[in-house]
Design brief:
two-stranded antiparallel ribbon; alpha+beta; 4 strands
Length: 81
């Protein structure tokens, strides 16, 4: 009789690592992810002045997410008996 439970089981830490690897691959594949950040600068009565900053999550962060995710996947696995 074969036991299907023998092998490697991932802890929640490993699943976080998988999510980081997937996010990192998406960031690198898209060559960065642009974002816009809005904030209220001045509000006087009915007048509002807002600013918008545009930024980019660079592919360097994607590579870092892949490396950290790989470490978490490796650290989050455990051998079952």
């Amino acid at each position: 009789m074969t036991n299907l439970n023998v092998g490697v089981i991932m802890r929640p830490l490993g699943w976080v690592g998988v999510l980081l690897v997937v996010a990192g691959v998406i960031i690198v594949a898209m060559r960065g992810i642009p974002y816009t950040k809005s904030s209220n600068q001045v509000e006087v009565g009915p007048l509002k002045v807002t600013t918008q900053e545009r930024g980019l999550v660079t592919p360097m962060y994607g590579v870092a997410a892949i490396v950290v995710g790989g470490v978490l996947v490796f650290a989050g696995r455990k051998r079952s008996a």
